[in-house]
Specification:
By secondary structure, the chain is α+β, with helices and mostly antiparallel strands. 56% of the residues lie in helices and 17% in strands. Helix 1 runs antiparallel to helix 6, helix 7 runs antiparallel to helix 8 and helix 10 runs antiparallel to helix 12.
Length: 437
């Protein structure tokens, strides 16, 4: 796993954890708000029912109510009711109108109507904010509404009901305090979620750093293994090659010795490419980068491969912008262009066309380098896997091709150095590899 892949894994873990935390916290806060809003609405409804039952006038006979309740219940039942009352108080579902404070704390006004819709009585003794004429206007407005209970003018709730004596009654209750409490609850929940997200971000980042440490260590061990194994394999290969060459000099030159030399050369090339893959995934020093003439390097590389393409019966087209430059290591630019053009020539269809393009965007921030070739059998392939080491998309198509299946992986590693990307796309019988610097 490359350093960039490990970094992507870390960022993915952080993002997943943060999104999960946000969803859970939002769900909990939402449930608390909805539960509180429903209980508040239920309390408001009960209070308005009580006012309507008393025809808009609150009685003050609380002592008689409490006396009757006390006489009707025994000690055991009283203890049970105390427990129930505590639960009701905890969840805010107790009947507030049994309290002596209900008479003084409730702010409302009511209007009663006769059966023919005429105003019979206006009760505004429990509010100083509304006069009789305003109360009638409000009552006539809510009478026309489809719902008999609901919110009115943000801080008020209304209820329309039929009277037992005939006619109807409208009660409008001032619920500004409850509405303000619900708003503060929402604001507090948003603030807590925000602070919780910030604290969680720092904790999750520290945790993620520890989690990916084994991956970083494994990546370092892998690089060290490839480097050490490459050095160890060079010696026996050199001995095998020298012994085979000696046999050929001594006259034992046959198909077996030639086959041995071919496999030695192939193994040597494979070792060199493995080392290049390891180096491509390493960090480079930005201070050592110089202004590189991308246009010049690409023209030189393309012209040198043009002869190879022509001899193989293929055509090469070029569309290269002038004076495209970037801060880079010259070897990296040359290696990327060489790998992609060589790959295009190898896997281009017989008598096909290879197209090399280089351009800059209008703002001059990005450089685009692409190589495409005819590839009729490219439909339905997983082009993301083309950059995996030793991957061959079509064994039958590639069996006679030279190469080790690591060239595109090397190119991807080099692109990661410059925070760029390389992508493969197939369309209308043409495969295109595009690099964005």
């Amino acid at each position: 796993m490359s350093e960039k892949a490990i970094k992507r894994l870390k960022n993915k873990f952080i993002m997943t954890a943060m999104v999960s935390f946000f969803i859970v916290m939002t769900f909990i806060a939402g449930c608390i708000y909805v539960f509180n809003a429903l209980m508040t609405r239920s309390q408001i409804k009960d209070s308005m029912h009580y006012i309507i039952e008393n025809d808009g006038v609150l009685p003050m006979q609380y002592e008689d109510i409490e006396t009757e309740n006390t006489e009707d219940t025994g000690d055991t039942i009283s203890d049970k009711n105390d427990f129930v009352a505590q639960l009701q108080k905890l969840f805010g579902v107790e009947s507030e109108y049994v309290s002596e404070e209900f008479y003084y704390a409730t702010r409302y006004f009511a209007v009663t109507f006769t059966e023919d819709g005429q105003v019979e009585r206006v009760i505004t003794s429990h509010t100083a904010a509304v006069e009789a004429s305003q109360a009638i206007t409000y009552a006539n407005t809510v009478m026309k509404r489809f719902f008999k209970f609901g919110n009115y003018d943000d801080s008020y709730y209304y209820m329309v009901a039929d009277r037992e004596s005939g006619g109807s009654i409208v009660v409008i209750l001032d619920c500004g305090t409850q509405v303000a409490i619900n708003r503060r609850l929402v604001l507090l929940a948003c603030i807590l979620i925000g602070f919780g997200m910030l604290i969680s971000l720092f904790l999750i980042r520290a945790w993620a750093e520890k989690i990916i440490q084994p991956e970083i260590k494994n990546a370092e061990l892998q690089k060290a293994f490839i480097t050490n194994a490459s050095h160890e394999l060079k010696t026996p290969l050199a001995v095998i090659k020298a012994n085979t060459e000696m046999l050929e000099i001594m006259g034992t030159d046959n198909e077996w010795t030639k086959s041995t030399m071919r496999q030695v050369d192939r193994l040597t090339g494979l070792i060199q490419n493995l080392v290049l893959v390891t180096k491509a995934s390493e960090k480079d020093s930005k201070e050592e980068r110089v202004e590189t003439d991308f246009t010049g390097f690409l023209l030189d590389t393309a012209k040198s491969f043009e002869v190879v393409a022509t001899s193989d019966g293929k055509k090469m087209k070029m569309s290269i912008d002038d004076d495209v430059k970037m801060m880079a290591h010259e070897g990296d630019v040359r290696q990327i262009t060489t790998l992609l053009i060589d790959n295009a020539i190898k896997y281009c269809d017989p008598h096909g066309t290879i197209t090399v393009e280089l351009s800059k965007d209008k703002k001059g921030k990005n450089i685009f380098f692409s190589v495409s070739n005819d590839y009729v059998d490219g439909a339905g392939k997983d082009y993301d896997r083309f950059f995996d080491r030793f991957y061959r998309g079509d064994q039958a198509h590639n069996i006679d091709k030279e190469g080790y299946g690591v060239g595109l992986s090397i190119a991807q590693g080099l692109m990661e150095r410059y925070h760029g990307e390389i992508k493969a796309k197939w369309q209308n019988g043409v495969i295109t590899f595009t690099c964005r610097f």
